[in-house]
Amino acid sequence: MSKRVLIISYYWPPTSGSGVQRWLKMSKYLPQYGWQPVIYTPENPEADVTDQSLIQDIGPEVEVVKRRIIEPYAVFNAVTGKKKGTGAINPISVSEHKSLMMRLSLWVRANIFIPDPRCLWIRPSVRFLKKYLREHPVDAIISTGPPHSMHLIAKGVHRATGIPWIADFRDPWTGIVFFKHLPLSRRSLRRHRRLEQSVLKEADKVVSVSELSVQDILSVLSPDYPYKNKFHVIENGYDEADFADITPADLPGRFNIVHTGLFFSNRNPQILWKVLAELRRELPGFAGDLHLIFAGKTDAEVIASVKDAGLGDCLTDLGYRPHHETNSLQKGADILLLPLHKEPEAAGALTGKYFEYLAAGRPIVAFGQHDSSLEQSLAQTRTGRLFDWDEEAPLKEYLTALYTGTTAFDPDPDAISAYTRRSLAGRFAALLDTMQEGK
Q: Which of 99, 176, 213, 258 has fewest C-beta within 10 Å?
């Protein structure tokens, strides 16, 4: 008989973007390991982008429970006249040229809505779930954040019921790259840290996406914290089914560089645009063969820097595309572009996009920090190279070799296959099973 697991997630189809994929896919495969998912998610989330095609990926065994949420962002947008999808992708990390209203909204977000603007959903959700679980019991709880209010909902339910609980950190809390840009008062900072520590201490298991990310989360606790063995790594991954019947996109150039998903301004690899502009002048035929394709929400600053480098004529900015179309673009690429955030806090990031790139089987050119989780994984899977933000000569040499075919692309299929969503769901199920043994 299947056991039931309550999964508390802000992101769920038709909401799209990186936040939805991890638990959409885990819930699809958990039933194969004896766990029936019960998703608790908002009925009316504030979502810039939706993708109706993702609904087809919800498994038939998955039960979805929705409740309305009060969204401060919706009120702010109504007051300021801001429409969904306008402005910078991540205004928290853009420090210059903020309006007075934007500065005020960031202060309110940092000091009033703790840990995040979904905090108004915590108490109503705890009340609802305590009643719901009396009538529809579950064997375990998983919360996934950000937003980290989901962990506080789980903590409240866990305290009231004693149901075993896994806190899944797709990104860190106070260690996330934009946290230092928040205009926090000292009191608010202490409150963030106190809440974060309470989640880490009270959860039966804590999961994050890389070893470096786990170490970053552990650093919040004292060095002599005695229960470090409850912290685990379960990476993001790729769904083989997403690529099974995907035909590579027929792209316009002979050397197509593709980026899919969100493209933040603080991931802008300006050294790449400089090197590509030089290669257009220096390599015979390269100017006509090069094509840049962005599929997803791209910050205006990134587009401007591409044009400033003289590459505007070879850029196609498609905007958001349905998930299956981005998979087709990934498979049709000659190079898949993967820049991380430039801040040192991004060293542990292994994004869901990276694993889809692995499944696409095309060379990856990444930008980030050496010795990061991404660089280690690229070496393990033999799927590409990572460059620092000012490594001009090695980058130019590598791109030239890829264009001329003088470097071999020889990925390791065994290393890549370890990251299927089915396999990773099995690892989550194993953690859930161990918590049942302790009941």
A: 99
Report residue 56 as tokens.
């087809």
CA distance 190 to 193: 5
Least confident of 47-51, 212-216, 365-369: 47-51
The total number of structural domains in the chain stands at 2
pLDDT at 94: 45
β-pair partners for 231: 206
Measure the CA dihedral 186/190/193/199, to 10°: -150
SS (H, E, C) the chain: CCEEEEEECCCCCCECCHHHHHHHHHHHHHHHHCEEEEEEEECCCCCCCECHHHHHHCCCCCEEEEECCCCHHHHHHHHHCCCCCCCCCCHHHCCCCCCHHHHHHHHHHHHCCCCCCCHHHHHHHHHHHHHHHHHCCCCEEEEEECCCHHHHHHHHHHHHHCCCEEEEECCCCCCCCCHHHCCCCHHHHHHHHHHHHHHHHHCCEEEECCHHHHHHHHCCCCCCCCCHHHEEECCCCECHHHHHCCCCCCCCCCEEEEEECCECHHHCCHHHHHHHHHHHHHCCCHHHHEEEEEECCECHHHHHHHHHCCCHHHEEEEECCCHHHHHHHHHHCCEEEEECCCCHHHHHCCCHHHHHHHHHCCCEEEECCCCCHHHHHHHHHCCEEEECCCCHHHHHHHHHHHHHCCCCCCCCHHHHHCCEHHHHHHHHHHHHHHHHHCC
Residue among 30, 9, 15, 423 nearest 235 (CA): 423
Q: How many whole angstroms separate alpha carbon 231 and alpha carbon 225? A: 12
Same domain, 306 and 190: no
Whole-angstrom distance, CA of residue 238 vs CA of residue 241: 9
- Are 215 and 264 part of one and the same domain? no
The number of angstroms, rounded, from the C-alpha of 26 to the middle of its chain's C-alpha atoms is: 14
Q: What is the residue range of 277's domain?
A: 241-417
Total number of residues shown for the chain: 439
Which phi and psi angles does 340 have, rounded to 5°?
Answer: -90, 175
Domain at 82, CATH number: 3.40.50.2000
Measured CA to CA, the distance from residue 116 to residue 330 in angstroms comes to: 33
For 144-195, write each residue's pLDDT tens digit. Answer: 999 999 999 999 999 999 999 999 999 999 999 889 889 999 999 999 999 9
